[in-house]
Structures are given as structure tokens and as C-alpha cells.
Write a structure and sequence with these properties.
The protein is α+β, with helices and mostly antiparallel strands. The protein folds into two domains: 84 residues, 2-Layer Sandwich (Alpha-Beta Plaits); 73 residues, no CATH class. The protein has three helices and 15 strands. Strands 1, 2, 5, 6 and 9 form a five-stranded antiparallel sheet that branches. It has a three-stranded antiparallel sheet with strand order 10-14-13, with no helix packed on it. β13 and β14 form a beta hairpin. The chain is globular.
């Protein structure tokens, strides 16, 4: 059975590793963000990985060992000595954020988990935990298995408690 796993790769090699693994037939997801880059004479919009040095693969546990043996590919995220699968809903959250072009940024803080909430974004539902509220907008989504938080600008009216 295939599950999603986080693969840590060398800095600035995310797109190269994605291309290589995709060419070999693997289902690879590299969340991308569009950011403005200031040049001397102009501004340019560029694409950068949302989570630097990480991409995600939907593979069976047996396939992990084939990938680990490849040169310059990287290493999987482990928990308790085993590759740590990432729940499908968390990958779907990242895909929805990327697809809808929501304004987001990685927030590197530790916090206590609050209310579990969900929001309908396009045709997808994002699930996460409220960490703090700042005015009319503000919603932090924790991706438990990779230990990072995403701040997503979304109105309170679009939130509801998850079961």
C-alpha cells in the first residue's frame, strides 16, 4: 500500500531530485510558492520550494530502500527508527494551499495545540489547529509529521470546528 513520505534532499536540489524521481516513475509532490525577487533593475516572480530541502513521495515501504540507495537523492524522515508516513489529508492541505495561491509562510515556533478546525478552500478541505487569532484573518496549520507550521491567511467566517 502506498503512503506519503517526506524526503530530505540537499539544499537547492529539490527540483532536480523531483525530476529524477518522476522520470523513474515515482509519484512526487514538491510544493512550490511564488515569491517576488528583487533585481537591480526590476522585480521578478520566481518559484521556490515551500519547504526548503523537502519533497514528498507516494510509495510503498519496500520502495523506500530502493530510493535510499540512489546517489545524491537524500534521506527519508524517520520517527522511532522507521520511515514516518504522512497522512493523506496533510498532503491534500499542501496541494490546496498551493493550488489556490493562498498567502502563506513557514512559522518556526512551538506552541500548544488549540481547537481543531477545517476550512473549505476551492474543492478541498484544509484541516488544522487554531494557534492564535489576529484580527479578522489568521490561521495556523500544523503538519505534525514534519514539525513545521504554516500560517495561512483565511477569514474566521470560513472556519468551522472539525469533529
Amino acid at each position: 500500500m502506498k503512503k506519503w513520505y517526506a524526503l530530505q534532499v540537499s539544499s537547492n536540489k529539490e527540483k532536480t531530485v523531483k525530476r529524477t524521481l518522476s522520470y523513474l516513475g515515482y509519484d512526487v509532490f514538491l510544493p512550490i510558492q511564488k515569491v517576488e525577487s528583487k533585481r537591480k533593475d526590476r522585480r521578478k516572480t520566481i518559484e521556490k520550494p515551500l519547504i526548503p530541502s523537502y519533497l514528498f513521495l507516494s510509495i510503498s515501504q519496500d520502495e523506500i530502500w530502493k530510493i535510499v540507495g540512489m546517489n545524491n537523492i537524500g534521506k527519508f524522515v524517520f520517527f522511532n527508527g522507521k520511515p514516518a508516513p504522512i497522512p493523506d489529508y496533510q498532503i491534500e492541505n499542501l496541494k490546496a494551499i498551493e493550488k489556490e495561491g493562498l498567502s502563506y509562510m513557514i512559522v518556526d515556533i512551538h506552541f500548544e495545540i488549540g481547537d481543531k478546525v477545517e476550512a473549505e478552500i476551492g474543492e478541498s478541505i484544509i484541516t488544522g489547529y487554531i494557534i492564535e487569532s489576529r484580527g479578522k484573518r489568521g490561521f495556523l496549520v500544523q503538519l505534525d509529521h514534519i514539525g513545521m507550521n504554516f500560517k495561512i491567511d483565511i477569514s474566521k467566517e470560513e472556519l468551522k470546528k472539525a469533529l
